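Posting for a labmate who doesn't have an account.
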Amino acid sequence: MDQGVIDYIANVFDIPKLTQHVSAVQMPLPLSRLAEIPLDAGVNQCQGFCYNSKKDVFVLACINSENTKQIIYEINPTTFKVVAKYEYSHKKLLGHMNTLTYNPNNNRYYTTNAVVDGYIVTPIEADSMIVEAPIRLKEKVFNFAFDKDRNEYVSIVPLTNSHRTINYYDSNFNKIKTYKIDAEHTDLNNNGAYAGNGNTIFTTLTTFVFVDEEGVVKNISPYTSGMEVEDMDYWNGQMYMAVNRKGKVEIYGLPSLPFSVNA
Protein backbone atom coordinates (compact mmCIF):
# COMPACT_ATOMS: atom_id res chain seq x y z
CA MET A 1 0.00 0.00 0.00
CA ASP A 2 1.59 3.29 -1.06
CA GLN A 3 1.01 6.90 -0.04
CA GLY A 4 -1.92 7.35 -2.42
CA VAL A 5 -3.85 4.66 -0.63
CA ILE A 6 -2.86 5.95 2.79
CA ASP A 7 -4.15 9.39 1.82
CA TYR A 8 -7.48 7.84 0.82
CA ILE A 9 -8.10 6.34 4.28
CA ALA A 10 -10.22 8.57 6.51
CA ASN A 11 -9.26 8.45 10.19
CA VAL A 12 -12.64 8.84 11.84
CA PHE A 13 -12.28 6.37 14.70
CA ASP A 14 -11.06 6.96 18.24
CA ILE A 15 -9.97 3.50 19.32
CA PRO A 16 -8.65 2.91 22.85
CA LYS A 17 -5.36 1.04 23.11
CA LEU A 18 -6.02 -2.64 23.73
CA THR A 19 -4.20 -4.55 26.44
CA GLN A 20 -3.23 -8.03 25.29
CA HIS A 21 -0.23 -10.30 25.48
CA VAL A 22 1.82 -10.34 22.32
CA SER A 23 4.77 -12.61 21.67
CA ALA A 24 7.35 -10.41 19.97
CA VAL A 25 10.23 -11.94 18.04
CA GLN A 26 13.31 -9.71 18.23
CA MET A 27 15.35 -11.16 15.37
CA PRO A 28 14.08 -10.43 11.85
CA LEU A 29 12.34 -13.32 10.12
CA PRO A 30 14.67 -15.20 7.74
CA LEU A 31 13.15 -14.22 4.40
CA SER A 32 14.91 -15.85 1.45
CA ARG A 33 15.06 -14.09 -1.90
CA LEU A 34 13.93 -16.55 -4.58
CA ALA A 35 13.54 -14.54 -7.77
CA GLU A 36 13.19 -11.16 -9.40
CA ILE A 37 10.20 -10.81 -11.69
CA PRO A 38 10.94 -8.74 -14.83
CA LEU A 39 8.22 -6.15 -15.34
CA ASP A 40 6.79 -4.97 -18.63
CA ALA A 41 6.87 -1.33 -19.62
CA GLY A 42 4.12 0.68 -17.99
CA VAL A 43 4.09 -0.97 -14.56
CA ASN A 44 6.57 -0.32 -11.78
CA GLN A 45 5.40 -2.06 -8.61
CA CYS A 46 3.56 -5.09 -7.27
CA GLN A 47 0.51 -4.99 -5.02
CA GLY A 48 -1.29 -8.36 -5.10
CA PHE A 49 -0.05 -11.96 -4.91
CA CYS A 50 -1.64 -15.38 -4.43
CA TYR A 51 -1.46 -19.04 -5.45
CA ASN A 52 -3.94 -20.59 -7.89
CA SER A 53 -4.29 -24.29 -7.02
CA LYS A 54 -6.20 -25.11 -10.22
CA LYS A 55 -3.57 -23.73 -12.59
CA ASP A 56 -0.68 -24.40 -10.19
CA VAL A 57 0.75 -20.92 -10.60
CA PHE A 58 1.60 -17.94 -8.47
CA VAL A 59 -0.36 -14.88 -9.54
CA LEU A 60 1.22 -11.45 -9.27
CA ALA A 61 -0.64 -8.16 -9.77
CA CYS A 62 1.50 -5.18 -10.80
CA ILE A 63 0.43 -1.58 -11.45
CA ASN A 64 1.76 1.83 -12.42
CA SER A 65 1.94 4.77 -10.05
CA GLU A 66 -1.24 6.33 -11.46
CA ASN A 67 -3.32 3.13 -11.01
CA THR A 68 -4.30 3.33 -14.68
CA LYS A 69 -2.52 0.20 -15.89
CA GLN A 70 -2.48 -3.26 -14.36
CA ILE A 71 -0.66 -6.43 -15.45
CA ILE A 72 -1.37 -9.80 -13.88
CA TYR A 73 1.48 -12.30 -14.25
CA GLU A 74 1.14 -16.06 -13.86
CA ILE A 75 4.39 -17.52 -12.53
CA ASN A 76 5.61 -21.10 -12.36
CA PRO A 77 5.92 -21.78 -8.59
CA THR A 78 9.05 -23.90 -9.03
CA THR A 79 11.09 -22.02 -11.62
CA PHE A 80 9.55 -18.56 -10.99
CA LYS A 81 9.35 -17.98 -14.73
CA VAL A 82 6.46 -15.94 -16.10
CA VAL A 83 4.18 -18.29 -18.06
CA ALA A 84 1.35 -15.88 -18.91
CA LYS A 85 0.34 -12.27 -18.48
CA TYR A 86 -2.85 -10.24 -18.78
CA GLU A 87 -2.98 -6.48 -19.26
CA TYR A 88 -5.74 -4.13 -18.10
CA SER A 89 -6.53 -0.42 -17.94
CA HIS A 90 -9.25 -0.44 -15.29
CA LYS A 91 -8.71 2.36 -12.82
CA LYS A 92 -12.34 2.31 -11.67
CA LEU A 93 -12.59 -1.48 -11.30
CA LEU A 94 -9.06 -2.61 -10.45
CA GLY A 95 -7.31 0.57 -9.39
CA HIS A 96 -4.49 -0.13 -6.94
CA MET A 97 -5.15 -3.90 -6.78
CA ASN A 98 -4.32 -3.71 -3.09
CA THR A 99 -3.91 -7.47 -2.44
CA LEU A 100 -5.10 -10.43 -4.48
CA THR A 101 -6.70 -13.63 -3.22
CA TYR A 102 -7.99 -16.80 -4.88
CA ASN A 103 -11.20 -18.66 -4.09
CA PRO A 104 -10.92 -22.22 -5.48
CA ASN A 105 -14.62 -22.87 -4.81
CA ASN A 106 -15.73 -20.50 -7.55
CA ASN A 107 -12.41 -20.14 -9.40
CA ARG A 108 -12.17 -16.40 -8.93
CA TYR A 109 -9.59 -13.89 -7.83
CA TYR A 110 -10.66 -10.97 -5.68
CA THR A 111 -8.85 -7.66 -5.45
CA THR A 112 -9.57 -4.29 -3.88
CA ASN A 113 -9.50 -0.96 -5.69
CA ALA A 114 -8.40 1.04 -2.62
CA VAL A 115 -7.93 4.33 -4.50
CA VAL A 116 -10.93 5.31 -6.63
CA ASP A 117 -13.47 3.42 -4.52
CA GLY A 118 -12.48 2.04 -1.12
CA TYR A 119 -15.67 0.01 -0.71
CA ILE A 120 -15.45 -2.41 -3.62
CA VAL A 121 -14.01 -5.88 -4.11
CA THR A 122 -13.57 -6.82 -7.76
CA PRO A 123 -13.79 -10.46 -8.94
CA ILE A 124 -11.78 -11.80 -11.86
CA GLU A 125 -12.73 -15.16 -13.38
CA ALA A 126 -9.49 -17.11 -13.17
CA ASP A 127 -9.71 -19.07 -16.45
CA SER A 128 -10.93 -16.35 -18.79
CA MET A 129 -9.31 -13.56 -16.72
CA ILE A 130 -12.40 -11.44 -17.36
CA VAL A 131 -12.94 -8.66 -14.83
CA GLU A 132 -16.46 -8.91 -13.43
CA ALA A 133 -18.80 -6.43 -11.79
CA PRO A 134 -17.49 -5.21 -8.42
CA ILE A 135 -19.03 -6.19 -5.11
CA ARG A 136 -19.82 -3.24 -2.87
CA LEU A 137 -19.35 -3.65 0.85
CA LYS A 138 -20.79 -1.43 3.57
CA GLU A 139 -17.33 -1.01 5.07
CA LYS A 140 -14.09 0.13 3.51
CA VAL A 141 -11.89 -2.69 2.29
CA PHE A 142 -8.14 -2.58 1.56
CA ASN A 143 -6.39 -5.85 2.39
CA PHE A 144 -8.44 -8.91 1.52
CA ALA A 145 -8.02 -12.69 1.79
CA PHE A 146 -10.08 -15.85 1.33
CA ASP A 147 -9.99 -18.46 4.09
CA LYS A 148 -10.62 -21.73 2.25
CA ASP A 149 -10.82 -23.67 5.52
CA ARG A 150 -13.73 -21.54 6.75
CA ASN A 151 -15.16 -20.52 3.36
CA GLU A 152 -14.93 -16.93 4.58
CA TYR A 153 -13.40 -13.67 3.44
CA VAL A 154 -11.26 -11.52 5.70
CA SER A 155 -10.71 -7.79 5.33
CA ILE A 156 -8.08 -5.73 7.17
CA VAL A 157 -8.70 -1.99 7.37
CA PRO A 158 -6.31 0.55 8.94
CA LEU A 159 -8.07 2.79 11.47
CA THR A 160 -5.31 4.78 13.13
CA ASN A 161 -1.53 4.58 12.91
CA SER A 162 -1.59 1.59 15.23
CA HIS A 163 -5.05 0.04 15.15
CA ARG A 164 -6.72 -2.05 12.47
CA THR A 165 -10.20 -3.49 12.07
CA ILE A 166 -10.53 -7.07 10.85
CA ASN A 167 -13.89 -7.81 9.26
CA TYR A 168 -15.05 -11.34 8.45
CA TYR A 169 -17.58 -12.10 5.69
CA ASP A 170 -19.40 -15.27 4.68
CA SER A 171 -19.28 -16.63 1.13
CA ASN A 172 -22.04 -14.18 0.12
CA PHE A 173 -20.13 -11.19 1.51
CA ASN A 174 -22.37 -10.73 4.55
CA LYS A 175 -20.35 -9.46 7.51
CA ILE A 176 -20.39 -12.03 10.32
CA LYS A 177 -18.00 -10.53 12.87
CA THR A 178 -15.43 -7.81 13.41
CA TYR A 179 -12.46 -7.19 15.72
CA LYS A 180 -10.38 -4.12 16.45
CA ILE A 181 -6.74 -4.96 17.05
CA ASP A 182 -3.52 -3.13 17.83
CA ALA A 183 -0.78 -3.86 15.29
CA GLU A 184 1.71 -1.87 17.38
CA HIS A 185 2.87 0.08 14.35
CA THR A 186 3.57 3.76 13.82
CA ASP A 187 1.66 4.57 10.63
CA LEU A 188 -1.28 3.54 8.47
CA ASN A 189 0.68 1.44 6.01
CA ASN A 190 -0.86 -2.02 5.93
CA ASN A 191 0.04 -4.71 3.41
CA GLY A 192 -0.86 -8.21 2.42
CA ALA A 193 -3.42 -10.62 3.79
CA TYR A 194 -3.41 -14.35 4.40
CA ALA A 195 -6.23 -16.25 6.09
CA GLY A 196 -6.28 -19.91 7.14
CA ASN A 197 -8.52 -21.76 9.58
CA GLY A 198 -9.67 -18.52 11.16
CA ASN A 199 -6.15 -17.12 11.60
CA THR A 200 -4.99 -14.00 9.79
CA ILE A 201 -1.56 -12.69 8.81
CA PHE A 202 -0.74 -9.25 7.42
CA THR A 203 2.30 -7.02 7.30
CA THR A 204 3.22 -3.48 8.16
CA LEU A 205 6.28 -1.78 6.71
CA THR A 206 8.47 -3.59 9.23
CA THR A 207 6.58 -6.52 10.78
CA PHE A 208 4.42 -9.59 10.25
CA VAL A 209 1.32 -9.54 12.46
CA PHE A 210 -0.47 -12.80 13.37
CA VAL A 211 -4.06 -12.64 14.66
CA ASP A 212 -5.98 -15.69 15.87
CA GLU A 213 -9.61 -16.59 15.24
CA GLU A 214 -10.75 -14.64 18.30
CA GLY A 215 -9.15 -11.42 17.13
CA VAL A 216 -6.20 -11.61 19.50
CA VAL A 217 -2.79 -10.46 18.27
CA LYS A 218 -0.63 -13.47 19.10
CA ASN A 219 2.65 -12.57 17.46
CA ILE A 220 4.44 -9.59 15.91
CA SER A 221 7.68 -10.45 14.10
CA PRO A 222 10.01 -7.98 12.36
CA TYR A 223 11.46 -8.46 8.91
CA THR A 224 14.51 -6.84 7.36
CA SER A 225 14.09 -3.16 6.59
CA GLY A 226 14.57 -1.81 3.09
CA MET A 227 11.83 -3.92 1.52
CA GLU A 228 8.05 -3.73 1.43
CA VAL A 229 6.21 -7.04 1.68
CA GLU A 230 3.09 -6.36 -0.37
CA ASP A 231 1.14 -9.63 -0.30
CA MET A 232 1.56 -13.32 0.52
CA ASP A 233 0.17 -16.84 0.22
CA TYR A 234 0.96 -20.24 1.69
CA TRP A 235 1.93 -23.12 -0.63
CA ASN A 236 3.83 -26.37 -0.40
CA GLY A 237 4.75 -25.98 3.23
CA GLN A 238 5.98 -22.40 3.31
CA MET A 239 4.90 -18.80 2.97
CA TYR A 240 5.69 -16.97 -0.26
CA MET A 241 5.47 -13.23 -0.67
CA ALA A 242 5.75 -10.50 -3.28
CA VAL A 243 8.08 -7.66 -2.33
CA ASN A 244 8.87 -4.21 -3.67
CA ARG A 245 12.55 -3.53 -3.01
CA LYS A 246 14.79 -0.85 -4.48
CA GLY A 247 12.66 -0.45 -7.58
CA LYS A 248 12.43 -4.19 -8.22
CA VAL A 249 9.67 -6.75 -7.73
CA GLU A 250 10.95 -9.88 -6.02
CA ILE A 251 9.58 -13.13 -4.62
CA TYR A 252 10.68 -14.26 -1.18
CA GLY A 253 10.09 -17.41 0.80
CA LEU A 254 9.71 -18.00 4.52
CA PRO A 255 10.08 -21.73 5.27
CA SER A 256 9.50 -21.47 9.02
CA LEU A 257 7.14 -19.21 10.92
CA PRO A 258 7.17 -18.37 14.63
CA PHE A 259 3.48 -19.33 14.67
CA SER A 260 1.23 -21.92 13.03
CA VAL A 261 -0.88 -20.93 10.05
CA ASN A 262 -2.86 -24.19 10.27
CA ALA A 263 -2.87 -24.46 6.48
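Reply:
Got it, the C-alpha coordinates are right above this. The first strand starts at residue 23 and ends at 24.
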